[in-house]
User: Fold these one by one.
Assistant:
Number 1:
Amino acid sequence: MTALAILWQRHRLLLGGFLGATLIALFFAARFLLSVLYWSDPAHRNQPLEGWMTIGYIAHSYEVPRDRLIELLDLQPPDNQDRKTRPTLERIARERGQPLDALEKDIEAAIAQLRAEEQVR
């Protein structure tokens, strides 16, 4: 403990920076670990479509390329969207003026097409 006290007395800024960087690294490591644990659970694969889901979530759950799914659904490219407000299926259906069920059928057809394309390769 005396070494830590000496570092605190002589190099407060450096020690504070090191501790801050360590906390940031731990935050991202924990976030990564939680993501790995979540997606490794088979219950999160091929989930039935629901209104709260985003296109990215669906692409991850069904293991299809997100960009191709967006393209097949004729949605805006991700560059034109605000990253903080990723649209849910309910919002996409409302903006298109179609019922959620119709959008879900379109998504299911796109997923089937992407999986068929993947099997051809």
Number 2:
Amino acid sequence: MAKSLNGKTVAVLATDGFEQSELTEPVKALKDAGATVHVVSPKSGSIQGWKHHDKGDTVPVDATLDSADAGRYDALMLPGGVMNPDALRLEPKAIAFIRAFVQADKPIAAICHGPWTLIDAGAVRGRRMTSWPSLKTDLTNAGATWVDETVVTDRGLVTSRNPQDLPKFCPKMIEEFAEGRHGHRHAAA
């Protein structure tokens, strides 16, 4: 049974090209568990979702990276979609935002291509994790132990492979977010 997230505020970092179900389903699960959820993006207004190869719906942005303070959030969720994390990796403010969660030992959940940004934030070395299969080599080269499992948890980091994993990913994300900070989560530099 999932623990309540009442009083917790979660950032969902995304930009155009996110996989729609990988943002909307976790956001719904987080809100249903009592969390306040903010979609944070490099741009204001709204961001464009995708349903695999087809355009999906737009989602309103609650805060831009220019105004978002990682310190006010209890946890971070990173949806996938190929374009979304690929674009975020090129945004120094996005990587700094993610790195702030890593350095503060705050829980992070990432699905599909979402873990790509964790490489740039220095968050994967020594971690056991999963992702969309095409990220296996990138994650392994960055020091992670990659496994092909539905959901993987490693000291507050929750990862899953694809939208089909959402039924197991969402409850595990809520559980880890409810637990809060996980000490010594990131590898020593």
Number 3:
Amino acid sequence: MARLVFGMNVSLDGYVDFDKFAPGPQLFGHWIENTRGLAASLYGRTLYEIMRYWEQDDPNWTPAERDFADAWLAMPKWVASRTLSSIGPNATLISDDLEGAVRRLKNELAGEIDVGGPRLAHSLGELGLIDEYRLYFHPVVLGGGDPFFRGALPPLRLVSNDSVGDNVIRLTYVPA
């Protein structure tokens, strides 16, 4: 049975914003290895559309960027959206019965399924489907934006904390 994990880069004040800060070399290497090890990813529409950047073949990419693109393209993806009508390679659209589809994925796959996007994570958290939360705190204060947590959840229990390089601290929580 697969485990659903929601993990994202987040500012000290709790916001995710892909244009305001990016991972440094050590953390980017961590994300490459993490992506290579995933059973699959489950995205909301907004983050999936941002991540489709990695479908192109940019000759200006660094070797690390190319490694990430290769890992991302190889990984099976599911996209939860009622508005998208088509998606890219190695991806499956979930347009209805999100709970049923995610429960099937958890039962059919082994390993970790990454949850991408705070809105989707909130919906799945309310359904009790997320097994672990990983917050990668960057030394940045944004003062607003899209929050990592979009609403109240049942209590969480800290299970680990570690430095992931580039002045980033990862806090890992599970439902209490």
